[in-house]
Amino acid sequence: MSAAFPAPRLRSTRPELFSPLDNGPDFDQLTGYELMARKPPGSLAARFPSSEGSIMANIWMLVTIMFGVFFYALRCRQRLWYGLIELAVAFIIIFLTFHPPGPIVLAVDEPTWWGTLLTRCAGSLAGVYFIVRALDNIEKGLPSQMRRGWDRLFHGKVL
How far is Cα 84 from Cα 104, in angstroms, rounded to an integer? Predict the structure, then answer.
């Protein structure tokens, strides 16, 4: 790893990993896996230590499904607004492709040039796909008074 993010030293799993986060003297020696195993005090995971993964995974799965149903209803009823939201998501995907939020905790080595290129290409193509889908949904939800400018811009039609 780089000098800014030195590789943590390995050590055995210890019971104090499950104590509250306190930045103790050994905090900088934890591995990525040990950091992820720590539970902040008062968190849902700390209250349900034996099943924190399955409970939260099921809750987030249900929330995600509800979001999907909500956005489908929005797409059916307000196609223009759905397309604008989709366009914003495309811009966020493209931004995060070129400006990732931080170092990857589980990364062991520096990324290779082709891995970085592949990741950026995949993110860019996903962003482009979202832009195309967003513009298609915006077009289908466009009011008739805005149709003339849209057709001139994207279809080359002069009405």
Answer: 31
